[in-house]
């Protein structure tokens, strides 16, 4: 205890003495001056610049280290909810349902009936079968016609298509039955009622064909097509035509040459001549080669080609060689707005009874069939767009043809044992050289995808060598068309056809006789349709809206105002 007290006393004494000394030192502090110096701030100029880069021999120093980054995903709760945006765009119309089978049927005045049937069936993965059936008929009833003027036309076609690994082939065939009457007897007539009643003006024309085509994907041999057509009528006429066209294609440097070999055989027979009771036979063979080279250079497209044919007349046992140009060119002068084009082309045209009948159903079964030497058809023109939705085309041409066919009326012939075509109510064919100058223009306007309009007109100037004029050829033709989709259900359209005046004569031609002038005519047609559903449509067609009994051929007035209404049905057959 005494020891602790001693220690405390010693600590107290030391503390007291220190405090006294501190007070004494505090009294001795003098005044001093303090100099403040600015801190040193180094600059780049103060640094010592290395004049030479050091050389490092340590390989580990220069080695680039590979750094691997890893992301450690950790779900984090969030209350953020993004708002859904609304896209702005074109509103697409619903896609129209397409069916593989279509059936349409309509009835109209003049006891008219019309039928259209079409189906496209997939036989298997690589094969398709298409079938088409068309029928158009009328029981007649044209004013001031003294003979039966009914007609019907039925056409059936089939096509089978198959795709193989390296080629595709198709086989097709068809049958057509046409019935027309030679009702074009001039009125008034000197024939008595019993004589008129005894006339049978009916002509049945029957035609059928078989054909096929093979196309290859690779190789020089590209395709071959074959067509055989047989035609006949009620008067023991017959015609056979066989056409075969193999095509080859081979490259030369950077270009491609295409060549087509042609063999066209035509034979036919008529039971008699119009003025003599002797049969008429014809037999022609056309063989040759046509081809060309296509050059594409920026805005220029040039087709350089020619055709060489040998035409042989087996009846007269003579033949000749024909050479024709096949040259076309186009130049895009101002993008799609101005395109210049032109060409010179020719061909040996194999005229035939079938084609004559399709052009004029009132020809007699006593025709003179002969080929036409179309030496050349030269033309130049310009086409393009005036604006984004207005297109145009203008063209001028000059053509020369030898032995061009002209339809001309047959004279009355009482020696034909009262055949239905022997009363001046049928047409024959004569041939002459023809030179034609033509100018044509076309305008098209597409206001929208729902409204389109177009108009076209052509002016012709003819020159013949032996006959007085180009019989039954118009000097002016014009067409105008409009199609309008009003809404998804309603649609309508129309067409106007104008044909200028023509002149006709009688065979044999009497140079002193005045030709008959057929007046120009305007044929106005329209249609209106309503879509009931995806499968059903109803329609209405009006032809010859102006109710003109014009004559396309002399003494053959057409039906007046024609009305036809019907329904169409689309469906899947399977």
CATH architecture: Beta Barrel
Give me the CATH superfamily.
TonB-dependent receptor, beta-barrel domain
Q: Please state the overall shape, judged from the principal axes of the Cα atoms.
A: globular
Main sheet record: 22 strands, antiparallel, barrel
The level 1 CATH classification is Mainly Beta
Give me the secondary-structure category: mainly beta
Q: How many structurally independent domains? A: 1
Q: What's the number of helices?
A: 4
CATH-assigned fold name = Maltoporin, Chain A
Protein name: TonB-dependent receptor
Organism: Spongiivirga citrea
InterPro entries: Beta-barrel_TonB_sf
Signal peptide: 1-22
Give short descriptive properties of this protein.
574 residues; mainly beta; Maltoporin, Chain A; 22-stranded antiparallel β-barrel; 4 helices; 27 strands; disordered N terminus
Explain what you see.
Strand 12 and strand 13 form a beta hairpin. The protein has one domain: TonB-dependent receptor, beta-barrel domain (Maltoporin, Chain A), CATH 2.40.170. It has four helices and 27 strands. It is mainly β. The chain has a 22-stranded antiparallel beta barrel. 14% of the residues are buried. The radius of gyration is 46 Å and the shape is globular. The N terminus is likely disordered. The longest helix is centred in the N-terminal third of the chain and has 25 residues. The termini are far apart. Its main location: membrane. InterPro entries: Beta-barrel_TonB_sf (IPR036942). This is TonB-dependent receptor.
